[in-house]
Structures are given as C-alpha cells and as structure tokens.
Amino acid sequence: MTEAEFAARVLTxxxxxxxxxxxxxxxxxxxxxxxDARVSGGVSLAEVAALVRAExxxxxxxxxxxxxxxxxxxxxxxxxxxxxxxxxxxxxxxARLGHPVHPLGRAxxxxxxxxIAAYAPEYQPTFELxxxxxxxxxxxxxxxxxxxxxxxxxxxGDAVPFPVHPLTADKGLVPTVAGRRVPVSPTLSxxxxxxxxxxxxxxxxxxxxxxRRNVRSIKPGTLVDGARxxxxxxxxxxxxxLPVLLADEQTYGHAxxxxxxxxxxxxxxxxxxxxxxLLARTPEGPYVIEEVSSGDVRRFFDAYxxxxxxxxxxxxxxxxxxxxxxxxxxSVTPRGELLLKDNDGAMLASGDFEDPRxxxxxxxxxxxxxxxxxxxxxxxVAFGLAQRGLLPLPDALGLVRDRLAEAVTDPFLRxxxxxxxxxxxxxxxxxxxxxxxxxxxxxxxNKHYGPPGPNYLRELPCR
Length: 463
What we know:
The chain is an alpha+beta fold. The protein folds into three domains: 3-115, no CATH class; 123-265, no CATH class; 271-454, Transferase(Phosphotransferase), domain 1, CATH 1.10.510.40. It contains 14 helices and 21 strands. The protein has helices at residues 3-16, 45-55, 62-77, 89-97, 113-119, 166-170, 220-240, 288-292, 297-319, 362-387, 393-407, 411-416, 428-434, 437-440, and strands at residues 27-30, 37-41, 127-128, 130-135, 138-140, 159-164, 183-186, 192-194, 199-202, 205-208, 215-216, 244-246, 248-257, 260-266, 273-274, 321-322, 330-332, 338-340, 347-348, 422-423, 453-454. Strands 3-7-8-9-14-13-5 form a seven-stranded antiparallel β-sheet, covered by helices on one side. Strands 12-18-17-15 form a four-stranded mixed β-sheet. Strands 1-2 form a two-stranded antiparallel sheet. A hairpin with a 4-residue loop joins strand 8 (192-194) and strand 9. Helix 9 runs antiparallel to helix 10 (362-387), helix 9 packs parallel to helix 11 (393-407) and helix 10 packs antiparallel against helix 11. The longest helix has 26 residues, at 362-387. The model has no long low-confidence stretch (mean pLDDT 96). Residues 299-429 form the Aerobactin siderophore biosynthesis IucA/IucC-like C-terminal domain. Belongs to the IucA/IucC family. This is Ferric iron reductase FhuF-like transporter. Pathway: Siderophore biosynthesis. Residues 96-280 form the Aerobactin siderophore biosynthesis IucA/IucC N-terminal domain.
C-alpha cells in the first residue's frame, strides 16, 4: 500500500466521522457503504496530520493518533513470511487483510517491530506461555489437561498456575516462573492463543488496538458476564433450532487484576472460518470464501446471510438482545453453521451484569445490530465480494436486503434497517484515540457513533 492510498483511507474515516473536511484538491469517488463518498487520492500523511492539528481541540490526543497512523503504515508495508497450513492459518490471513472499517487496525500500540514479528497473528509465530502463581484467585470451570500443576512450576501447593503472555512478562507487569512448556500461536485477536485446534486461552496483553484507549487487558467482570451470556445464548440457539454453535467460555480465572486473568475457550468444531478471513486471498490463489464454499460463492453467501439474520433478528425481536458479534468473533463452517465466541459486549434489554453498559434500550440495541451484524458481518462482506469480482454488487447487496427482509417482522427493527433513510456508523477514530470520553459522552468507546451513512439496502445499484 502506498502512502497516498493509506492517507486516503485515513482521511476518508476522519471525514466520515465528522472530525475534518477533505481539502478541495483531494480526489473523491462514490462509496455507498458507510459514507456517500471516499477519498481516493491526492493527499499525503503530512496533509492529514495538518488537517487533524488544525481541527483538534486542546485535549484531543493528536500525538497519539499520529503515532497510531505511523504504526499502522509501517505494519501495512512490513515484509511477512508465507502463511503456513495449521490451526491459525485463517487468523493469519485475516490479520493481513486488516479491519473493514478502521484504517489503523494493524497498529499495536507500544510494541516494537520485533515484538510484533514475534507475537502478532499476521506473522503466524509459535511461542511458549509464561506462568505465574496466584494464591486465592476466583476460578470457574475445569482446567484443561495441559495445565501445569503447582509443583511442576516450583510453586507452593496453595498457588494456582496462571498463564501469562510473554509480552506481559517481558514488560515486568507480572512476575513469572519457569515451568511446563506449552507452545501456542496467536489467533486474530492476538491476546487469544491457540493451544490446539479445540482449545484456546485468552490472556491480558500490554497493547491497545483499534484505538489507544482500547487496551487489551482483561477486566475480571467481562469473564463473568461473557460466561453468563454464553449460557443464555446456548439455550436460545437450542430453542430456536438454528445452526448456531457457541464456544464454551465457562472456564476462567482472575485475581481481581486486569493483568492477572485468563479464559479457556473450547471450540465445538475445527473447520469454522472467521468471517474476517473470508475475503482474504490464500497463498494458493483462491480467496478463502472460494475454498470454504467449494467455489459456489453466491450459494454460500446466501446461506450464511440466512442464518446470520435469522439468528440475530430472533435475538433482537424475541429476546431483546443485540450481539457485538463482529467479523472477528463470528465464524462460519462449510456447512453454513455459525460459531460465536466472546460474548461480553452484548447488549440486552435487562439483566444484572458486572458491566452496566450491557443493558440498553431499543434504540441503543438497534445501533449495535446495524453497526455490527449488518455493517461488519454482512455489508462489508458484500462490498468486499464485489471489489474482488466474486459477486456483482447489486447481487451481493440484494442478497443482504432480501435475507434481512425475510427475517424481520418487527416494524421497529424494519424502520431502523430496511426502511431507514440513513444508517448509523461508528466513530472509531474519534472515540478510540482522538477525543476524550468526557467530550464524546460515550460510556463505551466501542459504541460511539458519528454522522449516519447511506442505507445501501434502499439505494441498491441497478441490477
């Protein structure tokens, strides 16, 4: 990616969020996804920096944002090793593809290039877990067979072995001990590490992604909330009779410390592909979606959308739930099943959760439905298929519209989606790095919204 292409992507996001205006000399072209137009060229990173400095308030984190830009641009141009077969193959491919909305998604705050090469999913490394001992932690569930005993680590019998990411250990945030060697490889989230195809472990990580404020520690309450929502969703999936699978997230531990926590994630199938990887090109040539669909991209996309909307509309209309199950947390099998994980960002109509932000009214839940389920899991894929010549845009968007219309029965949800004049869009750069929460007024930086964008379900290109 050239500097001009990268600068255009960043400026497009800043304009979309209403933070700056594009200069008159910038080249633009129609968009239609989250904004009416996008910047296509004619600007440099220096110009983008000047625009941000000119518009920023005194307490905006301009320097942090510009550093994030630099980190992301370096990552975009880094030389990467060939992607290998293995349990994290699709994670590595998805990581190289980047985020469909956030132009700085490859930035990893506070990490050096050598640390990124050693631990980031796009490099597909393998390394060993570090371990520490915790006395009197909160523990739930059954630990896996590869978990060390206290004695094997030289710990006293009343200590519980906790896994620690090597970066956390290297930065001196947690003291570690020598012990059992457990090789792992990072998944797309980077802080979740694959031990086997069936078992992953999520640990705190001393970095931030998708914004300087989006730190990758683990708040103990999210483990409790995520496990509770997973149990609820499992019951609903069974009752609804839909091909939806839930990763088991009932085994976890914490020591009331965001740097001392873990989650063991058990996956019910081994052939599910993250939605984030579907548009990636494989080293062998085809795109991932061509592999998983056996070449019938239209049929596969249609079946995927049918299940995606049947499930999420049922949750919204009948159970008062909107999932923050984005393209990274939703996977799909060749059989069309959905596999969900990481449920601590859901929003429900009611409930007693550690995080009170998990309860919201219908308008708040509708915004989550649109920005996550519709934009990231459906719209971004449809536009991406068209850009790659895999499916004409009118056909891809027509499938999104028709499958959503087939699922929606509630006039409220229809008014916020299919019939809405404009659709809400997240302001990820604004909330994640640039503007402090005191000014955005957002309790959750991952649920902050900018100016609405076009409704691509109403404004379909000519067939």
